[in-house]
């Protein structure tokens, strides 16, 4: 004899159990989704504003726990570069480029880490593996630097020019390009490129200093009209004074060094030492 009430109760229990399992699965999926979002946000923070060594420790732990996650490996490599540990970063990138999800940009990042580690030939070999269709700012900036290291000036100039057209912030490229021209002895072109760099980043002191070096090499001993602080003015006068001395214009050099000492708001020890050394040489 059947018991409808009992059967209904049993069916209700089964339905409730199934519903409960379905509900638990939905909750777990939702929690996992939230965790992924939180983790993604944390990864972004680690890659931008966090202390580089702390970020590297975070990504090392996370990638060790999740060895198949290429995003965590990338985060570790980028953090190591930020922490000025390029040799370690290169080892991580070497593993990343072998993973199934790896793309051309991973190999470009690997080449950058190799360049930072002074492994120019290895970097060149990795860049040669990047397909020509992968046209990015970083790729061409690195190609230019490698061409520079090989003293292939025509190719370097071509790559620098392409790189400047692929970014809205080309100051660093113009500065590197200018320094390349400076080392070749093309001081006029170098001066123009450093001015281009300062057009995009008026606060870049490296470009300011390089600009003064390029002008000093042409025996232009007046400071260019650029945005500088009082401390920077003293430092640039110091650079120009040393350039003048190197050119054999010792009297002008001493005058520039003295002006640097007088301009600096605090004691300018480097300029004082340079003046003392010049006075000792004259005395001796």
TrEMBL record:
It comes from the Bacteria. InterPro entries: TPR-like_helical_dom_sf. Pfam families: TPR_16. SUPFAM superfamilies: TPR-like. This is Tetratricopeptide repeat protein.
């Amino acid at each position: 004899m059947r018991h409808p009430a009992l059967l209904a109760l049993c069916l209700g229990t089964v339905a409730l159990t199934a519903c409960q399992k379905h509900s638990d699965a939905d909750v777990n999926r939702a929690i996992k989704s939230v965790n992924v979002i939180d983790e993604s946000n944390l990864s972004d923070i680690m890659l931008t504003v966090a202390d580089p060594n702390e970020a590297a420790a975070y990504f090392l732990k996370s990638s060790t726990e999740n060895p198949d996650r290429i995003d965590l490996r990338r985060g570790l490599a980028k953090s190591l570069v930020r922490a000025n540990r390029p040799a370690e970063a290169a080892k991580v990138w070497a593993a990343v480029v072998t993973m199934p999800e790896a793309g051309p940009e991973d190999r470009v990042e690997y080449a950058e880490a190799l360049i930072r580690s002074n492994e120019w030939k290895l970097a060149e070999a990795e860049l040669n593996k990047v397909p020509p269709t992968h046209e990015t700012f970083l790729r061409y900036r690195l190609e230019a630097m490698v061409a520079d290291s090989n003293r292939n000036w025509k190719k370097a100039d071509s790559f620098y020019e392409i790189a400047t057209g692929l970014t809205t912030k080309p100051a660093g490229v113009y500065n590197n390009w200018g320094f390349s021209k400076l080392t070749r002895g093309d001081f006029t072109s170098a001066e123009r490129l450093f001015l281009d760099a300062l057009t995009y980043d008026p606060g870049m002191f490296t470009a300011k200093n390089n600009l003064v070096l390029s002008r000093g090499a042409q025996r232009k001993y007046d400071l260019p009209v650029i945005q500088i602080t009082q401390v920077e003015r003293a430092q640039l006068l110091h650079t120009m004074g040393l350039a003048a001395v190197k050119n054999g214009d010792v009297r002008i050099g001493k005058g520039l060094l003295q002006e640097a000492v007088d301009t600096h708001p605090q004691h300018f020890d480097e300029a004082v030492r340079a003046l003392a050394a010049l006075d000792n040489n004259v005395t001796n």
